[in-house]
Amino acid sequence: MRFTSSRTLKAGIAAAALAAGLAGTSLADSANLDQFSAEELLPLALKEGSVTVFSLSSRIAKVEAAFEKAYPGIDMIGVDLSSVKQIARVTAEQDAGVYAVDVLYMADTPVAFKELYQAGRVHNYVPPRIAAELDAKFQAPLLQHRLSTKVLMYNEAAYPNGAPISNLWQLTTPDWEGRVLMVDPMQRGELLDLLTEIALHPDEMAAAYEKQFGKKIEVDSDLNGAGEQYIRDLFANDLILVSNSDALNKAVGDKTLKEAPVAFGTYSDRRDNEEEGWALQIANDVEPANGILFPAVLAIADKAPHPAAARLAIDFMFGDDSANGGAAFAPFNVPGDYATRKSIADDPDSVPLDRLKAWTIDPEKTAAARGRIADLIITLQ
Amino acid sequence: MTSLVAAFHHRSGRALLAPLLLLAMVAVLVVAPLLKILVATLSPEGLAAWNTVLASPLSMNLWWKPLGTTLILGVGVAFGCLLMGGFLAWLVILTDLPGRKFIGVLSTLPFMIPSFATALAWGTLFRNSRLGGSAGFFEVNGISIPDWLAWGLAPTLIVLIAHYYSLAYTIIAAALSSVGADLIESAHMAGASRKRIFVGIILPVVTPALVSAASLTFAGAVANFAAPALLGLPVRMQTLSTRLFGMIETGQNERGFVLALLLIIVAASFLWASDRLVSGRRAFTTVTGKGGRTKRFGLGPWRWPLAILAVAIGIGTTILPVIVLAASSLAPQSGALFSNWNLHFWLGEAGGQIAQGQAGIFRNPVLIEAMWNTMRLGLTVALLTVAMGLLLAHTIVKRKGTLIANLLSQLCFTPLLVPSIAFAAAYIALFGAPLGPLPSLYGTFTLLVIAAAAHNLPFAVQSGRSVLGQISNDLEEAARLTGAGALRRMAVIVFPLAIRGVLAGAILVFVKMVRDLSLVVLLFSATSPVLSMVAYRYASEGFMQFANAITLLILVICLAAALLSQALQARVQKWKQP
Fold first, then answer.
1. pLDDT band at residue B66, thresholds of 50, 70 and 90?
2. Which of A48, A126, B253, B448 is least surrounded by CB atoms within 10 angstroms?
3. Is residue B350 part of a domain?
4. CB within 8 Å of chain B, chain A residues 303-362
5. Helices and strands per DSSP (H, E), number in chain B
6. What three-state secondary structure class fits B287?
7. Do B236 and A241 touch (CB under 8 A)?
């Protein structure tokens, strides 16, 4: 953390020189490196001396401290950047022939998948140590570190008998007109992903419609399926958009509220309930689903200047074999988020992952469908 | 073209060398990144984006409606700011208003308070039940607030005026303070009425300042994101800047770039039109070096009512947002601003029950380092930008009406309208690779400074212009005849006379630099952060209290800088001392 810019400059020059030196053999090397254990990576990583990580979360500072304690001699440089900025920066850097970052830790996977993975700007790497502990779906196309949520949240103080919503279609009825909130899906990618996921489940949305209203759904001629119809009906029912999750949580969560609205928000924000005077709770038993689970992924940048240290860092971030993952994973172990690694237990207060009624997004499918849904939303705003 | 030729005939070829150099500099700093963005919209996806934005079923919601809202905001804010900023500047500089020094300081502050704080302050007072959550002050006290006053165009307009009028004040006050006393004095002696002096002398003289102020506030309002996002979204009001941000945020870069380019075209044509509007008038040069202290207008019985009005404006737009920020940094629950205050977010030790065990900002070791980095960055960029701005403004003013001057003036204005993320990406692309004999600037402080200087150029140039426009050519002419070189003339004549405008520009740039984040975050590769990055980290983790504490700290730094510059100005312009 204590880098003056001149030292960084020197480090950058050294890194560039190293990258140039390795360029000829890097392909063969990286194939081998992928099979190396942490013990085998360590001496190479020590020789490299540092590793630069772009992270979507400022909690990277804690990982950095833990990493430098575990591996003295390797300097982790954590840079706190939103996923969108990571994509912008890596693209611009690589186009300019600068290869400065080693590891990217990011969400917004549909965009990352298209702009980075398919464009060959990042590569997938699964540490051999934990490969057996991850479901196959978490290992490709990009390694998934943990899952976050955008799900239906309600106020448990205003509704002490449980969630007022049991079917997504209820939100399109007059009872909930102007009482459903969401961060503008055109400002935040995760919400766009949520609506895209709804559109990708037309049959389930149609079945839920029939369950709610007792008749078959009629879909407007310009729309594809019940999911897109749902999006249009939801906006038509005066869906309220806000600019950030703080405004959203205050509007829904305030525990003094009587007629509280509901919102598509983040499950793990529930951890702030006590401190903020909120009563946020997840509405889990919702037909056909209450929202989405989306991954935070770890990837290695193309021509990473510190290939061994990069792999060692990713290996490290999956934690040790204890139930909370130890110092390396602890910063990310928050209730309402889910580790992909099986040995790390979920928080006892949260709904277990296998009982959570949320769809898990498939970055590839979402990436393909996202543009159409974005266009649909623009016409509805 | 004819004007260029005329300029050529008028002066020697050598005299044209300097402006051409400047043009080249601006080309590298401003035009190249713009071209980079333009080229990105000429790919197949980019051309599709042009089509989507301008001629598709989406155009209405993506371009036309946001454009309409944006123009209303821009024109409304520019107009409101001129009225408020101009009125206050007149009171403070030219009248015998009681407490004018205090009011003067108060009037420069709102620009240093981030617009989101002003928007939050508005919410604290006027928020209604549309969003759920706790109601605002008025609703709690039984006064119901309609949606149009709580959300959308009206509150956005008011909040933006409250934020940007101080920009207009700063520029107009700088120009007013250089109106020579001899002019007003002689008009008095000739028996002109106050109204006639105002309309006949003061107004024409400050016209360049008014145009500068209008342009900057227009552009600022048009590019502002926080206020329309916070206050407009709940009623689905979109401006071009919220659309633009959204496009880039959801990975639709080409559409975002297209919107940015269109925004530049619209704003540039407005600027051009306003330039046309006033260039029909003759330019007045008033500062001839002899001007003494300005005699003040007596306000008579209006002294106190006007003073109260001015203080009320200051309190409403300055103190109120600051109170909201301060309260937020003291209240453990972000929803209940005025209860259970404590100093944990400033001084608390780590490991307590509050804020997930995080220590207060003054116990954060990164903070002190961040403060130094911030000062270093802010000062370097402010000095560089002002130097560049002064040279450019000088050229633009002395060659008024020529092609080169028009070109420079338009180009210097555009960075204000380019989204920082696109600007930064273009800079990495341009200077990331070694350029001929020059090494790659990637990740260096230098690159950050260059990009930031270019991005802030509009402030320096505009505030320099409004003052330089009044300095008479005679002075320089005389110095030239006695053999003084260009640099010497700049240092001994132009700079001291223009010091107030120059410092005003420097402060604006410094404030922008200390406060702004998006440009820095993309170009700074070292982990040693600046204050705005620390604030962003806290905010992104949901610790608004910490973020607001740092915002207050930034405000204090800016205020100190502003006071310092006033002291400096007094030292340089000794002839104005009584």
1. very high
2. A126
3. no
4. none
5. 31, 0
6. strand
7. yes
Contacts of A59 in chain B (CB under 8 A): 541
If 0-12 CB within 10 Å is exposed, 13-18 middle and 19+ buried, where does residue B556 land?
A: exposed
Q: What is the mean pLDDT of chain B?
A: 79
Residue extents of the structural domains in chain A: 5-146+294-350, 149-293+359-380
- Stated as kind and residue range, the H or E segment containing A104 is strand A103-106
Query: Which residue range(s) make up the domain with B217?
Result: 15-337+356-576
Q: % helix / strand / coil in chain A, to the nearest 5?
A: 45, 15, 35
Q: Are B549 and B537 in contact (CB under 8 A)?
A: no
Count of domains forming chain B: 1
A234 φ, ψ to 5°? -65, -45
Domain of B513, CATH number, reads 1.10.3720.10
Closest approach of B58 to chain A, Cα-based (Å): 6
* Domain topology for A5-146+294-350: D-Maltodextrin-Binding Protein; domain 2 (3.40.190)
Residue given tokens 């609506």 in the structure block: A195
Look-up of token digits 């705005």? B532
Q: Do domains A5-146+294-350 and A149-293+359-380 have the same CATH topology?
A: yes
- Judged by CB atoms closer than 8 Å, whether chains meet at A374 and B336 is answered as no
What totals of helices (H) and strands (E) does chain A contain, helices first?
Answer: 15, 12
Q: Which residue, chain included where needed, has tokens 């992909």?
A: A340
| Cα gap A304→A300, rounded to integer Å | 7
Q: What is the pLDDT of residues A196-223, one digit of tens each?
A: 999 999 999 999 999 999 999 999 999 9
pLDDT digits (tens, 9 = 90+) for B18-32: 778 888 888 888 888
DSSP annotation string for A357-373: --EEP-HHHHHHHHHHH
Structure tokens at B253: 């870069």
Judged by CB atoms closer than 8 Å, whether chains meet at B131 and A181 is answered as yes
Which whole number is the average pLDDT over A175-182?
Answer: 95
Q: According to the per-residue pLDDT averaged within each range, which of A8-17, B11-20, B297-306 is highest? A: B297-306
Residue B273 lies in a domain: yes
Min distance A11 CA to chain B CA atoms (Å): 10
pLDDT band at A40 (very low <50, low <70, confident <90, very high): very high
How big is the CA angle at B46 (ends B40 and B47), to the nearest 5 degrees?
A: 130
Distance set, CA A7 to CA A3, B423, B444, B447, B526 (Å): 6, 26, 10, 16, 9
Residue B346 forms part of a structural domain: no
Given CB atoms, is B133 within the 8 Å cutoff of chain A? yes
Collapsed DSSP state (helix, strand, coil) of residue A122: strand
Query: pTM of the entire structure?
Result: 0.84
Q: Which among B57, B133, B421 has the least Cβ separation from residue A85?
A: B421
> A198 near A227, Cβ under 8 Å?
yes
Whether B157 is covered by a domain: the verdict is: yes
Side-chain half-sphere of B238: how many Cα atoms within 13 Å? 27
H or E element that contains B547: helix B544-572
Of A150-159, A234-243, B42-51, B128-137, minimum mean pLDDT range: B128-137
Phi and psi at residue B509, to the nearest 5°: -65, -45
C-alpha distance across the termini of chain A, in Å: 43
Q: Which residues in chain B are closer than 8 Å to A186, comparing Cβ atoms?
A: 243, 246-247, 249-250
pLDDT of residue A12 exceeding 50, the answer is: no
Q: Which of residues 244-263 of B touch A (CB under 8 A)?
A: 245-253
Distance, CA of B343 to chain centre:
32
Instruction: Give the CATH number of domain A149-293+359-380; options: 3.40.190.10, 3.40.50.300, 3.40.50.700, 3.40.50.20.
Output: 3.40.190.10
Q: For residue A123, what is the enclosing H or E element?
A: strand A122-123
